[in-house]
Amino acid sequence: MTDTTFAVERETERGIARIRIGAPDQLNVLSHATRFELSDAIAELGREPWMRVLVIQSASARAFSAGVDVGEFAGLTPLEMSRLYESMSTPAKIAQPVIAAVDGHCYGGPFELCLACDFRIVTEECRLGLPEIGLGQMPGSGGGQRLLRLVGPTRAKLMCMTGLKIDGTTAEAWGIASRCVPREELPAAVDELAAQLASLAPPAVQMMKLSLNAGGDASLTTALELEGKMYATLRTTEDYAEGLVAWQEKRAPNYRGR
Question: For the packed helices 108-115 and 143-151, what is the interaxial angle rounded to 10 degrees?
Fold first, then answer.
């Protein structure tokens, strides 16, 4: 099987980075090595101070990625298998917001990667699923747990325990997708959200992501305490001061990420 590659594109003036997976007309099945290379690329972009938003998309309308090469799993130890979720969790770990643009097939590990992103914009034609149960397995890269938190136990069990594949319209209705659009509108919809996020104060956007991600796994008391301290911290930033002055002067703010 030809290994699927990916390309990194940097639009530094706009603050937007893109990772484009695979090639036109391909199913973009990821090898074991590629999934970790992809994870490393996401983490590296997250350390670049100019980047305000990351978009992960496919070069193929056939698939975001139809899955991973399960044939390689036979050579992995149980310990290695138990840590596979780490590579697919990287979008949730970087400070900047991450948008997954999903068209075509998106199954297994790559769908779990999308679930770790902050936003998922999908097409009506896309197909999403966790089919591992059909191989006598279960999702092992965080998909079950992230779905549970997104859609609740009833729908998470339906997808994970039967291997149900859903379309983009259903994904939006269930709260998996941030937005569902016709295929021809996907680039514009993704660019619109990316530009909107990039125009906002980076400290506020990044702290909001951290607050929501951490608060979702905390008690309400702890989450409220965390949110309050983050709110107070943001009031000390240069971007907050700029936002306030811009509002008073009725002009667009010039945020510098400070």
Answer: 50
